[in-house]
Design goal:
Layout lengths: L4 E7 L5 H14 L4 E3 L2 H7 L3 H19 L3 E2 L2 E2 L6 H6 L2 H6 L8 H28 L3 E4 L4 H17 L6 H19 L8 E6 L2 H12 L16 H22 L2 E4 L5 H13 L2 H11 L7
Parallel strand pairs: 1-5, 1-6, 2-5, 6-7
Antiparallel strand pairs: 3-4
Length: 296
């Protein structure tokens, strides 16, 4: 049986990763490949068995509870649901994205980064690996390094502000230490993809695209969790994380697709061509086109 393959997308929010990812999946299916799109969000509902669905659901909820839970509204802590079903049914993620959080704690954002890593270890081991074992192409629309870097950025910003938090300085120090270890974590055999693509481009373009799609930016797409909600806050978070994405993409030898103002169709076509030209994917698509014994 042909060995499976993992392909991961990385880039700022609203830059066009989802559009390129859908086009790539369509190309693979047209070539007769089994495609499995793996994301933590999808696994929450699609994984029927209690293991790993229940811990994935609880870790998902706790990643938001730790990130937002110490924040205050009208000098009172946010009353975030304790159960995943209530969280989902009342659409709390959308609610938090619009929440005017004040006086949050750096420790919560740092804890959220650890929860993010824990959830993605389970996802990789219990969802991705079985799909690879049967020869599928596993696609990650958003490589989880992205979310951890953003949570650490929030932790470091809150730690620098302090706001009377006696743990701010040591939490900031630990956040910086964890940032220095992410190459080991996400470059490990469990989490590192076979093929990675960075979708890079200006944050102003991404902001226009995201707000046209959804009417507003989402949770953890700006520094709203640290009390800063504005287009400038979105651009600052996206620009800061984009610089880090480029460093990782360069170190890992990833494809870099530069988005410009040529339009969605032209950008998607260029990105798809660059991705499918990767040797591992080109060989797989060529074998499928030739009707080889391993083509599926």
């Amino acid at each position: 049986m042909q060995q499976g393959l993992t392909v991961a997308f990385l880039g700022i929010d609203g830059i066009g990763k989802s559009t390129l990812c859908r086009a790539f999946e369509e190309r693979l299916r047209e070539a007769g490949q089994e495609v499995v799109t793996v994301s933590w969000r999808a696994a929450l509902e699609e994984t029927a068995a209690p293991w790993p669905a229940v811990p994935l659901q609880q870790l998902w909820l706790e990643s938001f509870r730790t990130l937002y839970g110490a924040g205050l509204r009208d000098d009172r802590p946010l009353d975030i649901p304790r159960g995943y079903d209530e969280w989902r049914d009342k659409d709390w993620e959308r609610h938090l994205a619009a929440e005017p959080v004040m006086r949050n704690r750096a420790s919560g954002a740092l804890a959220a980064a650890f929860v993010e890593i824990a959830g993605n270890v389970l996802l990789a081991a219990e969802v991705t690996r079985p799909a690879l074992a049967r020869g599928a192409v596993v696609v990650q629309e958003s490589f989880p390094l992205k979310h951890v870097l953003k949570e650490l950025a929030v932790a470091e910003r809150l730690a620098a502000e302090g706001q009377g938090d006696p743990a701010a300085a040591p939490v900031g120090e630990l956040a910086r230490a964890l940032r220095g270890m992410l190459d080991l974590v996400f470059g490990s055999g469990l989490l590192k993809p076979d093929v990675g693509i960075l979708v890079d481009g200006p944050s102003a373009y991404a902001y226009r695209w995201r707000t046209a799609q959804n009417g507003a930016v989402g949770a953890l797409e700006d520094y709203g969790v640290a009390g800063e909600r504005s287009e400038e806050s979105f651009s600052r978070m996206q620009d800061e994380t984009a610089a880090l994405f480029r460093e990782y993409a360069d170190a890992w030898g990833w494809i870099v697709h530069q988005v410009d103002d040529a339009g969605v169709e032209a950008n998607t076509r260029r990105g798809l061509d660059a991705l499918c030209a990767h040797p591992a994917l080109a060989a797989r698509l060529s074998a499928s086109a030739g009707g080889g014994a391993d083509a599926r």
